[in-house]
Amino acid sequence: MQWFASQLKAGGFAPSIFSYPSVAGGPEAALPRLVQRLRELEAAHVVAHSLGGLIALQALCAEPELPVSRLVCLGSPLRGSGAVSGVLTQFPATSLMLGRSAALLQQGFACWEGRVEVGAIAGRVPRGLGALFAGFSGEHDGTVAVEETQLPGLTDHVVVEASHSGLLFSAEAAQYAITFLRDGHFPH
After folding, report:
1. Can you give the pTM of this predicted structure?
2. Residue spans of beta strands (DSSP E) within the chain
3. Residue 149: inside a domain, yes or no?
4. pLDDT digit string, tens, across residues 70-92
């Protein structure tokens, strides 16, 4: 997230990076830490990549009064990940690799009904190992299908030319995120 944070800073924001061990600690460990960090702020926006978007939404569901007004999810499988389900079906031992994050990655959310404005940025450059296991039928970023990033109740959604990891280094995704954080919608 370092490069992406530098783009947000250039866009007039004061980013602070929140990191967590996604495999060893999983959402159960990250969630209370994220909630505590957000409680300490007077006002905040959140930008999260992949599993981070799911954890951020989970935090906002658990604590609806957190001082967050906008959330941008980058390549987050908000409706659950077919790639994760495919990997676990074909190779059950990989559940150790995914750690405690597997359940949240598989399930995702049914919809978003909170007060926070949520924008999702999906990639459509199909580079990544997920393509080997998911059997994507539509556009995807190599790990997450575009349709998995589309959640009922989102404020806005946009697709960019980037792979899953490439979203973190995409100037286009960064500009979309900055616009959403400022205006509450993506430029169309």
Report:
1. 0.89
2. 44-49, 68-74, 117-123, 156-160
3. no
4. 999 999 999 988 665 555 455 55
